[in-house]
Write a structure and sequence with these properties.
- By secondary structure, the protein is an alpha/beta fold.
- It folds into 2 domains: 125 residues, 3-Layer(aba) Sandwich (Rossmann fold), CATH 3.40.50.2300; 66 residues, Arc Repressor Mutant, subunit A (Orthogonal Bundle).
- It is built from 10 helices and 5 strands; from the N terminus they run βαβαβαβαβαααααα.
- It has a 5-stranded parallel β-sheet with strand order 2-1-3-4-5, with helices on both faces.
């Protein structure tokens, strides 16, 4: 019998975006990254990159600090306003280190001072892409948990909230004016719908999501 099962497609490779107004720098970084099979997109200005930014799902950004019209710091702030959480590696000239420190304080992933070694840039990019993959995986996990929460009835959600606060079944029963057996049934349904194998796992699930958002 022919196996018609199609394996899931591998995730699309993450892209390294490079924004620098110096053409020689852009081309040099592009060649370096392609030599180690990174997917690369280059931009000569922050404004050009902003047109692309809203569609970005993953990757990292290599960004020059000092550029005309809009600086790297300005772009960093704009991306934050747009809700684009891409990790940023700033590249700086000697006199731009204070600006780079300011960028780090604003959430940048790292900065490299020119001239830097190719391997140093590759190492930082590798670390940034790993951090971004972890962020994406965490986001998917949060979405999955929120979808499971939607399966709960209002009463099951009440029981869940009290369970993760550490209340015993008999205490929950008294608080909700239910029989202890009814609480046990609700609790079992919560565990099943949330796909939790233990109380500890259930508590961890609730810790990784924004509980305010789940009540909205």
């Amino acid at each position: 019998m022919t196996n018609t099962h199609t394996p899931p497609a591998p995730p699309a490779p993450a892209t390294v975006f490079v924004v620098d107004d110096d053409e020689a720098v852009r081309d040099s970084i592009r060649l370096l990254l392609r030599s180690v099979d990174h997917q690369v997109e280059i931009f000569e200005s922050p404004l050009e990159f902003l047109e692309r930014a809203p569609a970005i799902q993953s990757g990292c950004l290599v960004l020059d600090v000092r550029m005309p019209v809009m600086s790297g710091l300005d772009l960093q702030q704009r991306l934050k306003q747009l809700g684009v959480p891409i990790p940023i590696i700033f590249i700086t000239g000697h006199g731009d280190v204070p600006m780079a420190v300011q960028a780090m304080q604003a959430g940048a992933f790292d900065f490299l001072q020119k001239p830097f070694r190719d391997q140093d840039l590759l190492d930082r990019i590798g670390e940034a892409l790993t951090a971004d993959r972890n962020r994406c995986a965490g986001s998917v996990r949060q979405d999955n948990i929120r979808e499971r929460l939607k399966l709960l009835s209002p009463r099951e959600r009440e029981v869940l909230d009290k369970v993760v606060q550490g209340h015993a079944n008999k205490v929950i029963a008294a608080d909700l004016n239910l029989s202890q057996r009814t609480v046990e049934i609700h609790r079992a349904r919560v565990m099943e719908k949330m796909e939790a194998h233990s109380l500890a796992e259930l508590v961890r699930m609730m810790l990784v999501i924004d509980t305010d958002a789940t009540h909205s």
